[in-house]
Each structure stands twice: as structure tokens, then as C-alpha cells.
Amino acid sequence: MDRRRITAIGVLVAAAGTAAAVTLPSFAGENPTTRRTAPAASDGVAPEVLDALSRDLSLTGDQAARRLKTERWASGTVTKLRTELGADYGGSWLSADGATLNVAVADPARAARVTAAGAVPKPVDRGVAELDAVKTRLDAAGRDATPDVAGWYVDVPTNSVVVVAQPGAEAAGRRFAEASGVPAGAVRVRTADEAPRPLFDVRGGDAYFINNAGRCSVGFSVVGGFVTAGHCGRPGDRTAGANRVAQGTFAASSFPGDDWAVVEVNGQWTPQGVVNDFNGGTVPVNGSTEAPVGASVCRSGSTTGTRCGVIQARNATVNYPEGTVTGLTRTNVCAEPGDSGGAWLSGDQAQGVTSGGSGDCTRGGVTFFQPVNEILQRNNLTLVTAGGQSAPSAPPAGGGSTAPPASTAPATPPAGDEAACAGQVSRTGRIVAGRAQVEPDGRFFRVPGGAQEACVSAPAGARVALELQRFTGTAFRTVARADSADGVARLTADTPTGAYRYRVVGLAGAGEYTLAFSAR
């Protein structure tokens, strides 16, 4: 039996490269990474860094390169001035455009030294060491801070320590600062709707705990949570991650008969389209096309890591002590307790979640998995893939069809739909259940911040979902979604400036759709 680690398999393919853009009336169409005349890498700066700066700071490539050069100079200058000014050094900061270095000085007599170094001196009352001491006092009193206080930080441009309070809770922020015993003039309270929380990734194969007792493994990320084995928990059971932080709740479960479950996670956890390879990295999940019998398959679980073998049979029935489970897939891959629920991949395609078997990973064995597409379809779930896209389940191998490309020309909606779906841009295409199409024309568009509206008219007798996705720097992520009702799915979202695209997802039936959208 082949037990090689999944990272040794050379067939894993990275997510597809960036597509071209399409122009939306009144807005420039660009590559989502905003590669506007970005120069080649220089001074050790990768082109990807310049691209990201260009996109997120609204700079040209040359402006991004100049900004980085100024920042490198500023870093060296600050290091020297901090040493020379000593206790009189009050901190430093760059101007909003990144072109000017400001240096705070507690002794006006030292301003000339700052000017000589090419920076702009700013007179202040306190050196940065004094500000740090104020913050240290607040840190010591932190256990007494109420939930109305989100945090505190040294703010060198205002020569103060800022306490951040929830809107309407300024008094709570002031009471906290006063109770800590710090000088009143050194602290400033500001309000912000901030509720910081740690964020964790949901990855296939990772361990999770059920009701602080049993342990299973994550299968695959889906929008809002993950799928796993049904024998791991029942609806209402609570889960915690491998770090023992509260994670989510079993929303659905089936065992015996089947062996699947769905866990909905809380806001601290973000489902990712990857699987832990237990070798220091992850591997991508790019879909769920079913592999044939005889194909290689690898399993990831929290007890024995990643193990590989081949698919021996499909539609297998297993008589467990708890009851009979049908529709499983049989493999010659080993597994052990705790691996249950873990992810199975063939290449980069999701196959299923670990159910059970016999043997172990010392002497070998047989292991069965519950096919993932059945879980997705039965629960109307959307698989999260490595590209940041949300991919609905694919039909089993040998079935279904591929939708042809969408029309590249604006189309007129069918009679009666003009009022239902109207916008600046219109596209038509053909969709089938289990498939998705990117619009407009497989590309994307750029818009400034503001409201976006779209609707799609579904084919007769069919159901579709309409998703709006934003490019986040490495991938497109869904920011809004609407399912069709009475033949139409409507979507409205208030979004920041960026690159966007729509996905029309087939949920049931097949036929021609019309998408219309606008942004203003």
C-alpha cells in the first residue's frame, strides 16, 4: 500500500491564474491586482508586492516603487535619530502620501538635527519612552477593562495613548484610564465600532473536539462551516478547534444509514479551501469531481496525518455495530480512531469524509469514506475552494454536462423580464444544476465604493443562486448571495472600492438565464 505523503504527489495543481478584466460603464476595467505599469522587481521587492500596493493604496506601479524606496530611507533615518535624540525622541511617522518623514522631538533644541537628517521635526511634550510607560500602566490594569473598551495604543502623531471605546461608552474608557493612575493629559479616549477577536482557519484534516470530549477531523470547508462524519456528533453538539477555542455547532447529522454531518462555525473561524498535509503545509481543494475506481486517493486526519492508496469500489455497504451504512467508497488506505470525518482528495478534487474501516496504519487496513457530493447536495451546501471561490458540488463522474460560455454581447431579457432584471450591463448564459458561471464573460470589473445591484432571471423550472465576489488580494471571495424565488434572484450590496465579479450557480434544473447588474 502506498503511504507516501500527499506533498510528494506531483499532480496537485495551483489555482488558476488571474483573468482579464471587463469594462463596466463609467469605471475602468483592470487586472484585479491593478498591474498599472508596475515595474519589474527592484531592490529585492517582488512584483507581487508592488501589485498589492498599487491595488490597495491606489498607486501606479512607479508610485508604489518610489514609496517603498522612501520607506526604506525613513527606516534607516529613524534608527539613527532614535539613538541620537535619546529620551527626547517622541516617535516618528510618514505622511499620508508616504513622502514626508515626521519626527517628534521633546526638546526644541534638537529640531535642527532632525532637519539635517532630511525629516520634519514636530515639537511634543512627551518622549516616546514616556508614552510607552503610560501604555504599560494601562496594560497592567487591563484585567479591569470592561467589554466596552476595545483596546489602547501609543499614537505618536498626537503624542498620547489612545483608549478605544465602543460608541456611547466614552465614560467607560475614561474611567478605565483614570483607574489605572496614568496622567490625564497623556491619554485620549476615542470611539470606534471595534470588537477585536482572534481569527482561526478551518482546514481539512485538522482536529476538532465534540462537547469537550471526543475528537474527530475536519472534512472540507463549506460556506459557513465544514462537513465531517455523522458518527462524530448529533445536531446541537458543540465543537472546539484543535486549540480548544469554541468553534461551532453540529447543524445536521446522519448516522447510521449515511455517515455525514455539517458543523456551522462561529465568526472567529474562517473556512478555507485547503487540506492540512501534516508536513508543514496545505494542499488546495479546487472542486469535487468524483474520481473513478482505481484512481489514487489520499486521506488527511488528525491522528495519522496523510495516507494514500487507491479507490477499490464505490457504493459499498458496511455493517457497523451501530447499524448499516450504505453508499460508501472502499479504499486500501489505512486510518485510526480520531481520523474520522477527515478529508479525502484525488489530486485537488474533494472526494469524501472518513467513515470507518479495519486495521491500522502499522499493519495496513481498509477504510471507507462518505462521498462528499452527496453531503453537499443533500444539505444544499457550497464547497469552499482554494481560489477563494465557492464551488457547488459537481455531479458524479459520467453524469451532467458542461455549460457553454456565456454570451459576450449584451442581451435582451426574455419578454416580461425587462422590469425584473435591468441594469447597465446584461449577459445571458446557460446553466445546469451543479455548475457555476462567472460573469461578465468569465472576467471581472472594477468599481468605486457604493451600492451594487444585480438580478438574474432563472430558466423555467430551475433554481439558481447569484453571488457577488470581491478580489481580496489573492482570490475572489463571496461578499453577497441571493437565491432565486419565483424565477428571479435579486442582490443588493454596499461595497468598498475594488475588483468584483458575479457567479451564477445552478441549484436545480437547467436552461438559459439572464443576468443584469449595475454599480453606482
What structural keywords apply?
about 15% helix, single chain, about 525 residues, six-stranded antiparallel barrel, mainly beta, globular, disordered N terminus
Summarize the helices and strands and which ones pair or pack.
Blueprint: H1 47-57, H2 61-85, E1 89-94, E2 101-105, H3 111-116, E3 120-123, H4 128-140, E4 149-155, E5 160-165, H5 170-180, E6 187-191, E7 200-204, E8 207-210, E9 214-217, E10 220-222, E11 225-228, E12 238-241, E13 246-254, E14 260-265, E15 269-276, E16 282-284, E17 296-301, E18 305-320, E19 323-331, E20 343-346, E21 349-360, E22 364-371, H6 372-379, E23 382-384, E24 390-392, E25 425-432, E26 436-439, E27 445-447, E28 450-457, E29 463-471, E30 476-483, E31 488-495, E32 498-508, E33 510-519
Parallel strand pairs: 2-3, 5-6, 7-15
Antiparallel strand pairs: 1-2, 4-5, 8-9, 8-12, 10-11, 11-14, 12-13, 13-14, 15-16, 17-18, 17-20, 18-19, 19-22, 20-21, 21-22, 23-24, 25-33, 26-32, 27-32, 28-31, 28-33, 29-30, 29-32
Helix pairs in contact: 1-2
Give a written overview of the molecule.
The protein has 520 residues and is mainly beta. 14% of the residues lie in helices and 41% in strands. It has six helices and 33 strands. It has helices spanning 47-57, 61-85, 111-116, 128-140, 170-180, 372-379; strands at residues 89-94, 101-105, 120-123, 149-155, 160-165, 187-191, 200-204, 207-210, 214-217, 220-222, 225-228, 238-241, 246-254, 260-265, 269-276, 282-284, 296-301, 305-320, 323-331, 343-346, 349-360, 364-371, 382-384, 390-392, 425-432, 436-439, 445-447, 450-457, 463-471, 476-483, 488-495, 498-508, 510-519. It has a seven-stranded antiparallel beta sheet with strand order 9-8-12-13-14-11-10, with helices on one face. The chain has a six-stranded antiparallel β-barrel with strand order 17-18-19-22-21-20. Strand 4 and strand 5 (160-165) form a beta hairpin. Helix 1 packs across helix 2 (61-85). The N and C termini lie far apart (59 Å).
